[in-house]
Amino acid sequence: MTTQITKGIKISVITSFEGTFFKNYKMHFAFGYTITIENQSKDSVQLTSRHWQIYDSLNDLEILNGEGVIGKKPVLRPGQSHTYSSGCLLTSTIGAMKGHYNMVNLNNSEKFRVQIPNFKFSAPFVLN
Q1: What CATH number is attached to the domain comprising 24?
Q2: Total domains in the fold of the chain
Q3: How far apart are CA 67 and CA 85, in angstroms?
Q4: Per-residue CA distances from 83 to 38, 56, 62, 102, 119 (Å)
Q5: What is the C-alpha to C-alpha distance for residues 35 and 28, in angstroms, rounded to an integer?
Q6: Is there a domain that residue 101 lies in?
Q7: What is the pLDDT along the chain (128 residues), one digit of tens a residue?
Q8: In whole angstroms, how far apart are CA 126 and each of 17, 29, 92, 95?
Q9: Of 36, 56, 54, which is closest to residue 123 (Cα–Cα)?
Q10: Within 10 Å of residue 105's Cβ, how many Cβ atoms?
Q11: pTM of the model
């Protein structure tokens, strides 16, 4: 598990290898990740958007931006957490992701950024 805390918001990431398949006549490697966002601060916050940098060892950097996470903009009161799962396709057996969430403090309307720690993907048959 990979974790990082920014301004009282703890991000924890667990990754998994989901398998291989062909898409557009090319082999792809599917990886999953589960992220828990835990509010350890004294204020209520809301996640508004996300920014991802996806690294594929055989491909160019891919940058993704979007509203919320999996269609939700969770509000977290102090002590609450939100967990979701998603995934990505790589053309290689090794890669990584990192990024940030844009959030707003609901007590004072301050916008802030929460770093998502760099987490790695590797197919289990690649590394000894």
Answers
A1: 2.60.40.1470
A2: 1
A3: 16
A4: 9, 25, 24, 16, 16
A5: 23
A6: yes
A7: 899 999 999 999 999 999 998 988 889 999 999 999 999 999 999 999 999 999 999 888 999 999 999 999 999 999 999 999 999 999 999 999 999 999 999 999 999 999 999 999 999 988 65
A8: 11, 12, 10, 12
A9: 56
A10: 16
A11: 0.93
